Fold this sequence. Notes:
The protein is 53% helix and 10% strand. The protein has helices at residues 2-9, 20-35, 43-60, 87-94, 105-115, and strands spanning 11-13, 16-18, 37-39, 102-104. The strands form two sheets. It has a two-stranded antiparallel sheet. The protein has a two-stranded antiparallel sheet with strand order 3-4.
Amino acid sequence: MRLRVQRDLLRHDGARTMTEEDEMRDWAEAYAKEQGWVLNPDKKVLDTVIRGLVRNRKKFGEQYCPCRLRSGDKEKDTEIICPCIWHRDEIAGDGHCHCRLYYRKDAAEKEAGEEE
Ligand code: SF4
């Protein structure tokens, strides 16, 4: 049973063994790149958000934002499926989305510089 669960969690991508978290991170990275953004340079925060997205997808069938409350109304909650309806405005205004998954490049560089 345990082996089966592990097998289900792991996908093979060439030489790399992919977990659902890896797949979610790859998806988020590709989306960020497409938009001219980057992912949070703080790996710890990034991993937490990615894990939250995977957990919500497994539990509720959609990758609901891990930083917002679901209403329980499926139609209304489409607003908080990542990327949520507010992320563009948040990134433009604050430099990052509410969960701090996506960052404007300048905001990410500034934050990384402050940590050094
Ligand atoms: S706040 Fe960020 S992580 Fe959360 S749903 Fe919106 S884009 Fe995704």
